[in-house]
Amino acid sequence: MVTRVGRIPRAEQVGATRRQILTAAERLFAEQGLYAVSNRRISAAAGQGNNTAVGYHFGTKADLVRAIVRKHTERIEALRLEMVAATGDSQDVRDWIACLVRPVTAHLDSLGSPTWFARFGAQVMTDPAFWGIMTEEATATPSLVRVLDGLDRCSPDLPDDVRAERSDMIRTLMVHVCAERERALAEGTAAPRSTWDETAAGLVDAVTGLWTAPITHS
After folding, report:
1. Cβ atoms < 10 Å from Cβ of 204
2. Number of other CB atoms surrounding residue 59 within 10 Å
3. Alpha helices in 33-158 (DSSP H)
4. Rg of the chain, C-alpha, whole Å
5. C-alpha angle 47/23/124, rounded to 5°?
């Protein structure tokens, strides 16, 4: 039997509460950082009178961060799977870089404005206690595994240590370029590119150049 509160089914009420908490936490984390924001503040921003609502629905702060990441990576994954399928067995590095970049920018574009996920990602990626969560969630997706396999096939001579170093550079570049554009849109200031699609084009150019750059041997 479904328990009802008023005329709203209990499960629906719980789902709405969780969504409100996720949205409030994402915004506060993006704007103020992870350590500066308490569960009490998140509960208040989500319109919850119970200060323990965050812990009740999500557990630890790490669990809350993971839930925010998953909310977005699931949507990004669907977009990337479509691009990967269309890319097929391409031997062009740029095609695989596009599969890396464009699902992220397309997702951010689809959210409207203001958004907070890119800035949230920048906060998480600079926090040693939490950056592993975002990396783990992203790299576990089937589409990203296929993108990395495609890049490997296109650049078989790239040494493992250089590959790992450039992967870190690419992740940092993508996160912070998207975060800076998102911040500019939220604040109403000028951004280097006028649309997310143009931002993606610039990132694809830059990341392709980074991945294929010559190696200096000491």
Report:
1. 19
2. 12
3. 39-45, 53-58, 61-87, 93-110, 117-125, 131-139, 142-154
4. 19
5. 130
Which residue positions in the chain have pLDDT lower than 50?
1-5
The answer to whether 139 touches 183, Cβ cutoff 8 Å, is: no
Closest CA relative to residue 174, chosen from 213, 138, 214:
138
Q: Which two tokens stand for residue 41?
A: 């503040």
DSSP per-residue string spanning 131-161: HHHHHHHHHTSHHHHHHHHHHHHH-TTS-HH
- What's the token pair of residue 96? 């695989």
pLDDT by residue (tens digit) across 108-166? 999 998 999 999 999 998 888 888 888 888 888 999 999 999 999 999 899 999 999 99
SS3 label, residue 28:
helix
The label of the residue with tokens 């939490």 reads: 130
